[in-house]
Amino acid sequence: MQHVLVFNSGSSSFKFSLFSTESEAPLLTGIAEKLGTSEAFMSLKAVDGRKEQLDIHRDHEAAIQTLVEKLPAYDLSFDDVAVVGHRVVHGGETFSASVKIDDKVLADIRSCSALAPLHNPANVLGIELVKELYPELPQVAVFDTAFHQTLPSKAFLYPIPYKLYKEQGIRRYGFHGTSHRYVAETAIEQLKLSEDDSQILVAHLGNGCSATAVVNGKSVDTTMGLTPLEGLVMGTRSGDVDPSLHQYLQDTLGWSLSRITDVLNRESGLLGLSEVSNDMRTLVAAAESGSEGAIIAIDVFCFRLARHLAALTASLSRVDALIFTGGIGENSPGIRARVLEQLVIFGFRVDVSSNDIHGREAGGVITEAGSTVAMVIQTNEEAMIARDALSLLNGKEVAQ
Ligand code: ADP
User: CATH: 1.10.540.10, 3.30.210.10, 3.30.420.40, 3.40.50.2000. Which one for 3-143?
Assistant: First the structure.
């Protein structure tokens, strides 16, 4: 049996999913949190619905060992794990597709750390630990940025001194690539579009939000940039603001650069505007009860999303489909309808009843016959990582 362990290592946490080759639904998922503290714990959820929570009281290594020891209780064995697939946030310009990890790859991932100082070192930690504990086990890295390495230079360059790109690597990289790729591939399959002649937009709307234009299965433009702060309004991130805002806030309020960065990342977006919550479900409920803050936050969220989607169409010659995914995209008919109404110029006409029923349980088309197609597809980044890990293990090519 070939099982794949998908690993997403953070600095004080890791998430994992264990897949068999038969299904894109994981056999076991879990998260270990507060690692390195006395409150460290791990929660597990099996495919049969069983759940449990365990105290670990220690670090990443102890958590991995606990997981390995726990597997037999779920009729699973670590011996069946043929490959570990790691989510790695930043692959810079070095990685344009998933790769098998060796010492050179590990060094290259480390060298991308300046671009993602909070994430890449934590991802490396997970890879190194698995290597230390199970040196013979093949490992694969799947990058959030890789899918967007097909962006043309006109889409990835900032109009700033060119040497900042050449010497410092300052450019737009884009993120959520694994989700955009999974959703684009699924859309092409489900809508029976031609792989060589398809033009779609994908809106990944979770806590972080980004949208991508995908032509013939390749990313050609995306809303996130050098960092995941650029682009759409998100839960706590502002998305695009005037680049002069930093200077203005420093001059008028005396805020430091790090304070401003923190405000734009953690206190802005839906949370900042609404002064209620970063959580769209809460905001939708609050708006229904008349909360002004929630109403305005949702207005700005939807308008800016529509505006960005319209901008992404500059890279298309037609719109075959707009796909909604992520927690908000999959679960909020109201947000989807608002965005499609704002984009009426592209010929979207919402089918109210299919929009109401389509969500996490069942994806599907949410527009009327004759309308430009919009649909919901459940993202599954972990399954995509598992797919790539198995392909590379078995010597197959993986898509960019
Ligand atoms: P992450 O980006 O952390 O993976 P998710 O993709 O799960 O997050 O998305 C989380 C977002 O989805 C939250 O804003 C949450 O409120 C929103 N969401 C989940 N269910 C609903 C719903 N029924 N209606 C509106 N928003 C929802």
Answer: 3.30.420.40
pLDDT tens digits for range 242-288 = 999 999 999 999 999 999 999 999 999 999 999 999 999 999 999 99
For the chain, which ranges sit under pLDDT 70?
359-362, 400
pLDDT of residue 360: 59
Instruction: From 89, 207, 335, give the residue whose CB has the most ligand 1 atoms within 8 Å, as the site to mutate.
Output: 207
Which token pair is 100? 């098998």
Is the pTM higher than 0.70? Answer: yes
Any idea where the domains of the chain sit in the sequence? 3-143, 193-381
User: Is the CB of 396 within 6 Å of ligand 1?
Assistant: no
Question: What string of DSSP letters covers 125-184?
Answer: HHHHHHHHH-TTS-EEEEETTGGGGG--HHHH--SS-HHHHHHH--S---S-HHHHHHHH
Domains 3-143 and 193-381 share a fold: yes
Active site residue 59: no
Residue 361 has a pLDDT of 63
Cβ(17)–Cβ(386) under 8 Å? yes
> Beta strand pairing status for 209-215 and 218-222?
antiparallel
Question: Residue 385: in which H helix or E strand, if any?
Answer: helix 381-393
Class of domain 193-381: alpha beta
Structure tokens at 372: 């430009």
User: Which residue is catalytic, options 80, 108, 144, 320?
Assistant: 144
Q: Which helix (H) or strand (E) holds 384?
A: helix 381-393
Q: Cα–Cα distance between 43 and 31 in angstroms, integer?
A: 6
Q: Quick check: 232 and 223 in contact, CB under 8 A?
A: yes
> Does 269 contact ligand 1 (Cβ within 6 A)?
no
Residue whose CA lies nearest to ligand 1 atom number 3: 207
235 CB near ligand 1 (under 6 Å): yes
Contact 359, 376 (CB under 8 A): yes
